[in-house]
Design a protein that fits this description.
The protein is an alpha/beta fold. It has two domains: 25-335, Alkaline Phosphatase, subunit A; 347-440, Arylsulfatase, C-terminal domain. The chain contains twelve helices and 15 strands. A hairpin with a 2-residue loop joins strand 12 and strand 13.
Length: 460
């Protein structure tokens, strides 16, 4: 290919890297490692006292994000968003699914389907939690292979499944991280001659905590830290397998978590935990490594989310994006260091069917909230989402703890975010629009009536 000087100068490094990627003989492999209930502050590269050298190495050799979000503070919805690039309230997974529940809407396209159509071999290893009936399992949602559990390990009985066949009626939780790691390494070996997408979704460190014998007591910080160190070991094994099979230089590896920590674990210097739309419930660690393409050791401060994975991978891998509108955006310019932020509309914080907060740039606006904390007993009238007497505005760059409401000082920001929310919410399914209108029509003293669902419990 010949280049004129003018063409070269007109191309930014992002455009150049895209052209280079297209000219490669083979598409990049993709590995997505997804922890369960791991907090923003649970990795040593995010300030934790827990030693996580293998994950830290990913950050040292790639990009580490500090404003990366799940699209939900609980499990099933966050996974639906990751795989579809759409808010879980659009794809019929607004709450945690129970055993036997139907799963994600049939008409949704997953990242596995998009990459599979582009010639990728695809595997889901670990926790699924997007529908346990056979028709909703991974092999019917674009994955060529599945080895794992259909939902959270604390849901009993929790079978171990290969494709659609139950291989053990009750999974041994202590052995799951090791088993998933072995399966991931085997898949890498078997797939080294074709481009592949590996979705490694661990059940840890979600309860019940259960480190294998090799890691029990190893951290010196208790069982939770033992489990996190075993996750780090697993990540190291995956990286070693890529290296051993000559795939390291052509593989994008990503690491993140589905939501914030539950009872144990650290949300870092953030307010809130799993089940809440405060930052600690939805801001997650996110690390991406792609040697020679993603610069080493870059810190990404721009807003990004699991919604962005599908559109970014579709662009990177030459796959066709789904026909339905996506809520995520292509964050490749952030990953390459070409830009510090990408243009996007407000990011919405849903809990169940209820929209509670929205973020635009440095600002986060709280508009509604439940009348009790997620882990407290329900009040006499039941748990209900209500509008705040006055919206609360936080500068989550300088105040990540969301401690200082500055709405009164910035009425223009409040009005702008509310206007954006009112426009965007109208694009959601009727039930979600109704939930928003119902909530905003209530007063703080109102009880949970009128027939709308009142979520209770934070499993998953």
């Amino acid at each position: 290919m010949s280049w004129s000087r003018r063409t070269f100068l007109m191309c930014g490094s992002g455009a150049l890297s895209s052209i280079v990627l297209r000219s490669q003989r083979r598409q990049p492999n993709i590995v997505m490692i997804y922890a369960d209930d791991l907090g923003y502050g649970d990795l040593s590269c995010y300030g934790s006292p827990i030693a996580t050298p293998n994950i830290d190495r990913l950050a040292e050799e790639g990009a580490r994000f500090t404003n990366f979000y799940s699209a939900s503070p609980v499990c099933s919805p966050s996974r639906a968003a990751l795989l579809t690039g759409r808010y879980p309230t659009r794809v019929e997974v607004p709450v945690v699914l129970s055993p036997g529940d139907p799963g994600m809407a049939d008409g949704e396209t997953t990242v596995a389907q998009a990459l599979g159509a582009a010639g990728y071999r695809t595997a889901c290893i670990g926790k699924w939690h997007l529908g346990s009936p056979t028709r909703y399992l991974p092999t019917n949602r674009g994955f060529d292979e599945f080895f794992g559990v259909p939902y959270s390990a604390d849901m009993s009985p929790c079978p171990l499944i290969r494709n659609t066949t139950v291989v053990a009626p009750s999974a041994d939780v202590k052995a799951l991280t090791t088993s998933f790691t072995q399966e991931a390494v085997d898949f890498i070996k078997r797939s080294k001659d074709v481009p592949f997408f590996l979705y490694l979704a661990h059940t840890a460190p979600h309860l019940p905590l259960a480190a294998s014998e090799r890691f029990a007591g190893k951290s010196g910080l208790g069982e939770y830290a033992d489990v996190v160190q075993e996750l780090d070991w697993s990540t190291g094994q995956v990286m070693a397998a890529l290296q051993a099979n000559g795939l390291d230089s052509n593989t994008l590896v990503m690491f993140s978590s589905d939501n914030g920590p539950w009872w144990q674990g650290s949300q870092g210097k953030l307010r809130g935990r799993k089940g809440e739309t405060y930052e600690g419930g939805m801001r997650e660690p996110f690390i991406a490594r792609y040697p020679g393409v993603i610069p080493s050791g870059i810190g990404c401060t721009g807003i990004a989310s699991t919604l962005d994975i599908l559109p970014t991978l579709a662009r990177l891998c030459g796959a066709q994006a789904p026909s339905k509108p996506l809520d995520g955006v292509d964050i490749w310019p952030l990953l390459t260091g070409d830009r510090t932020e990408v243009e996007r509309d407000v990011f919405l914080y849903f809990d169940s069917v209820y929209l509670q907060c929205a973020r635009l740039g440095r600002w986060k606006l709280h508009m509604t909230r439940y009348n009790t904390k997620a882990w407290s007993p329900l009040p006499a009238g039941g748990r209900v989402n209500l509008p705040l007497p006055k919206p609360e505005l936080y500068d989550v760059i300088s105040d990540p703890q969301e401690s200082y409401d500055c709405a009164a000082a910035h009425p223009d920001v409040v009005a702008d975010i509310r206007a954006r929310v009112d426009r965007l919410i109208q694009t959601f399914p009727p039930g979600i629009v109704d939930a928003w209108q119902w909530t905003m029509s209530k007063k703080v003293a109102d009880a949970p009536v009128d027939g709308l669902p009142v979520p209770v419990g934070q499993g998953g």
